[in-house]
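This section describes the prediction task in plain terms. A model, or a person checking by hand, is given the sequence of a single protein chain and must write out its three-dimensional structure as a string of tokens. No templates, partner chains or ligands are provided. The sample shown here is typical of the held-out split.
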Amino acid sequence: MRTTTRMHLAVAGTAALVCGATALPASAAEPADGLDRYYSQTLDWGTCALGPDDPTGRELDAAGARCADLTVPLDYADPDGRTLTVAVSRLAASDHEGRVGPLFLNDGGPGAAGLGMPLTVGRAMGEVADSYDLIGVDPRFVGRSAPLDCGWDIGTSIFSAGADRAAFKESVAVQRELADRCERTNGDVLPYVTTRNTARDMDVLRGALGERKISYLGYSYGSYLGQVYTQLFPGRTDRMVLDGVPSPAQYSQTLLAGNERVAQDALRAWASWAAERHATYGLGATRAEVLATVDRVLDAAAGEPLRIGDFTVDEHFAPLVFFIPLGSDLEENRAALAEMAVTMVKAADREPDVRPGPVLEELLTFMLTGQAAPQASVQTAIICGDVAERRGINSYWKAVRSARAVSPLTGPIANNISACEFWDAPVERPTVIDNDVPALLVNATGDTRTRYESAQQVRAQWPSSRLVTVAGARQHGIFGEYGNACADRQVNTYLDTGRLPSGDVTCRK
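The expected answer:
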């Protein structure tokens, strides 16, 4: 999670190469049969704002961007069947003589909207952005692109298994209900909510733009999407930046499994930070005392849900309050976690009328209401559509018990049962990435979402790539977000010149 509402992945999973008529032939220079009308469509570029209550659209318009709807088939095996529209924004290159081409952007999630990304990425690129058409996209079933909504009452399908077997059984029941409700409300489209189809939409957009190749910048899950695109459409990428790099060899329906130790280290580091500020927050004068305070809060939530304003926070969601902010060690994020922890302590002590601050209220609204259900729905549908498999309910409980010893906080979150256990099997087999693509990979050593070892695995698999390591940072999403001048310079130099560093680069925090 790079924010409270964007669950970015340290993911993994395997299987056979995508097969069947749904994929373009690997060596094809032209669209597969029946897809020509999609590739040759003319995009009708216009204003981006949908009305006065559309701040992203207004900002895009103010920056000179234009927006359009791309038509794509719901099912690439049936190009004459039902279609979807995918919302696209373009901030055109101002340096026409030095124009490189389009730079496609994806903010991960999966399920994060990307229409406004030309604005934020453009600021991070500075003058380098002048040479690119910056392309933002709300992927299929996200944002403006036929949004998926399973009608859930909560905003995430990722939560803790709880303290014991009884609590785990509650998780099983909730995940089964989430899967059932999605099938009841959206069963006709769920087979087509996949990473492979999003990659195919990207290539249709490439064709509609009249480009032979695209450049690409993807964060977290967006890095995985970029890898899938290179597998389905070899030779169609120019400059690729993958920031927060999941290994496709470990892509699975338990998004965060394997990150327990690095997340526990991040919690300890925050506890040390909070202990140094005991006079401000009162959470404990030593790291051990702060960690004991966290444990006390979680134990209290397991005994009886915490009352915070209008919210009831039980043992499944209280751990997320501490886990989500561990995606960044920036000072403001650590302070936000400390402030939320103070409120959680008051609720654990059963003080009357405990009210959340604005950050905690936003987080609890995200987790415990249906406000974020559309994003949670599509995120779950993508993962389950990619790699759903029947593992057996007891396998999750065994994994939770084992992981709890490594990280009492993260283990029961990362290994808890997934709605994918109750999902219909994917239409296609998961994609195996077995190519070698020139790319710039960026990862922090202490990333709690896409752990550093995953980036190293992709680097080994792609000998033509280079890895920029931000040593000592506990941050998910580096370029333009962490303020590391060394890493930002490496990305911008590559995007500017098209030349990768001669070797891997290490930047210090």
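For orientation: The domain at 90-148+193-253+430-508 is CATH 3.40.50.1820 (Rossmann fold).
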